[in-house]
Amino acid sequence: MARRSTLARIGQRSEILGTRRARMPPSPDPTGTRETVSCAGDALTIEVFALNHKDADTTPTIILLHDAHGAGPDRPVRTEAARLAAAGYRVVLPHYLERTGATRVGFSGIARHFGLWSEAIGAVIAHLRLANPARPLGLVGRSLGGALALAAAAETNGLAALVLRSAFLPPHLDGRRLDLPPVLALHGTRDVIVPPSHATNLAARVREAGGTCGVTLYETQAHTFDDATDADATARLLAFLAEHLRGAADRPAAAPPAS
To answer: Which segments carry the region annotation Disordered (predicted)?
Structure first.
């Protein structure tokens, strides 16, 4: 990951915020229904979270991508999945690290395996599209998961929304035109693992391509947010998804363009 020393000036929906409390859905039991999809001939686990186990064909779907610490039983991504399901979304949590036989990964493994994990996420998207081509689909990811979500969105047409927390810009996208769905990037200004310039540079490039990208910068936060900031970020994420992902579900259904 390239590190940049200064923040680009972004005029479109950029905010530098302190911490404030926000209202969120309660956290239900973070247990999903396990399924498998095929990826390069191997089985890949996904978990599906849906409110009261209801999963209507029109329910918008979020592919939620965890960070480098995986999707284990003690990981915050599971609570995040349950909260999104409580807000009325169908949430798919891929165990994409299985593609390389891991449950968590260190910095040294990210560049080596990024392509294989991207392949796994592509297989999940293809599986969901095959099952229901018209269901609105969005991507949400943090840190490594955010970078993988960004990479997937750059290769996939017809997505409704992309939300990134503390995500880095994948190096293979350098110099490429970024034709993306509406994007929301949430980042701490004190993040020394992934500097906030990744978020502001992303916003500039999305705008150059004619897209929209909102950026919220939290001035007291590092790579991981504290509880109050996490609550605010979740509230902003839900408002963004309500506008773009649920809004897509309210429009007349149409099959997505070929990826």
So the answer is: 16-35
Q: How far is CA 83 from CA 42, 96, 122, 210, 253, in A?
A: 30, 21, 24, 32, 26
43 pairs with which residues across the strands? 38
DSSP secondary-structure letter at 167?
A: P
Is 200 part of a structural domain of the chain?
yes
Q: What is the DSSP letter of 171?
A: G
Domain count, the chain: 1
The residue range of the domain holding 182 is 14-250
CB 68 within 8 A of CB 121: no
| pTM, rounded to two decimals | 0.86
Q: Which residues pair with 38 in a beta bridge?
A: 43
* CATH at residue 222: 3.40.50.1820
- CA dist 156 and 177 (Å) reads 14
Q: Would you list the DSSP string of 55-121?
A: --TTS-EEEEE--TT-S-TT-HHHHHHHHHHHTT-EEEEE-GGGGGT-SS--HHHHHHHHHHHHHHH
